[in-house]
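ERR on first pass: missing label on line 2. Operator R.T. fixed the label and resubmitted. Corrected input:
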Amino acid sequence: MSDETPTPTIDGEPEIVDIWLSGTEVPPTDEGAQEMAEEEPEARLREQLGSVVTDDYVDSEVAPEDERMIINMGPQHPSTHGVLRLQLELEGEIIRRSKPIIGYLHTGMEKTAETLTFAQGPTNVTRMDYLAPLHNELAYSLAVEQLLGIDVPPRAQAIRILMTELNRVSSHLVALATNGMDIGALSMMLYGFRERELILEFFEKTTGLRMNHNYIRPGGVAADLPPGWRRDVARIVETIPARIRDYDDLLRENPIWLSRTKGVGVITAEECRAYGITGPILRSTGVDWDLRKAFPYSGIDRYEFDVPTGTNGDVYDRYMIRMEEIRQSIRIVEQVAETMPKGDYRADDRKVTPPPRARIDESMEALIHHFKIFTEGFRVPPGETYVAVESPRGELGCYLVSVGEGRPWRMHIRAPSFYNLQALPVMMADTLVADTIATIASLDPVMGDVDR
Amino acid sequence: MNDEMERAPEGSDADVAPPDLPQVLAGLLADFPEAVYVESAGQHTVVVSREDYHALASAARDAGFEVCADVTCVDWFDRRPIRFELVVNLLSHRHRLRLRLLVPVPADDPVVPSLCDLWPGANFPEREVFDMFGLVFEGHPDPTRILMPDDWEGHPLRKDFGVGSVPVQFKESHKAT
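pass 2 clean. output:
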């Protein structure tokens, strides 16, 4: 566009800002602008924005009353737990109705999964809930293994539990950190991320990556624990509980923290069940429901741990539950480290497991075998299954359909954040705008998980 | 050959419900003789017609399946005579039990009753199924797209929706001239 032509807007008037910027007054009936504006203004807008965002209340039959005002929170801000937009109907400072609007991070991962082999699947799912990537991988791998009908050796199971429980700690630490920051306890942000670094370092050492590990795979795990893992785990087990005590000192009886969290964002057990809400939110209402206890997976029932529950179902209870879950996870990690069985870290099943690296150098068959597994992938018998694990956010399920090919026919992830987000309108009805941030933070949504 | 293997849910052996069926499920199935019980990888699965679907879901809720854990869909495309299959995962805290309902839905009339009146939490997942597969949920309070933009054409998770068919924005600037 040349300098003389002002940016055309929908109705053909040049933006006043453009006139200011250009310094010279441009006649509003500029022919070029007129012409450009006339060719489908809507299409041009669509091109600029990528799509047209419609206001959901525009054609709504329930028009807001005069004293009510509709505002959009986001996409983005609500303390940037991700690209979430909230449509709020306000009466003064009180939220009467609200509606979460999502999809900004949708990347069609379920569609992608249909084009990837079963062995490539974990790379895809690990990118959904990026704060708990190992849980995604675990749910997917368990589903594939169930269809394959293979057993995973005890060491692989123990490694899986060790890694996912550490992941729960790191995820909860982020939840606490952001929850603290959102309410104004800024030091929590630094502390939470500092402690998480300990765990991420261990993850990097073990899996090669800090996030998106692709570590838990159908048949076992990608690699054995690195040398010196006991020392690293011992350091984590030693450090985290002590630091958690510090947080407790900082927040538990802090009057500002209490007044911002107690009785805020309340939800009941019945509402949780009706809305399919799981995880710490469900447990904060006093429901003793944890998939690790209800439908144990990967041998988690071998370890002792408690399921903390709350009573009021408010932000404070959810905070307390996350604190306690960190302690319990550390307890599990301690037990796993003590009782780590010896043996193979992946199933000894020729169909699924590639041959050991050394064999490839000496055997042609091993080389062909290796090549086949990594190009075509292994075939999974026809069937469908739903496997769920307890992720830090709740029930993370994987619904997998195979038709006997090397790729899934359909892969669906039941994302806990997606369902938990439905709790927002319930929690926020008739509360103050100022509490919105605290409520969202206590849900701990991961938008990658919501939109997939 | 393929056909037979995948048609297994409606196959002959499916009619024989195992004797060790939990009581709550046995009672539930007794009321719906048309519904077919299948054990799929050790999980309780029931294939139910569109007509019985809502009634069965309602009865299941009253029988203790108080959580609707997941609603999703499978597009069988040309592999099955009835193209779509709605998949509903129910969960009972009380009985520590899962139950999966499979509802075949034909492509020429993709309408199913909504479960939002039983579980308000079915709202988001049903919108997702509408968005991704184009199934229409009768009685849904907010039947709009949820993940894709409002002006999106087509339903991405259908098998005939190509992976690479998204129009590229601003592609003129990348053209080699």
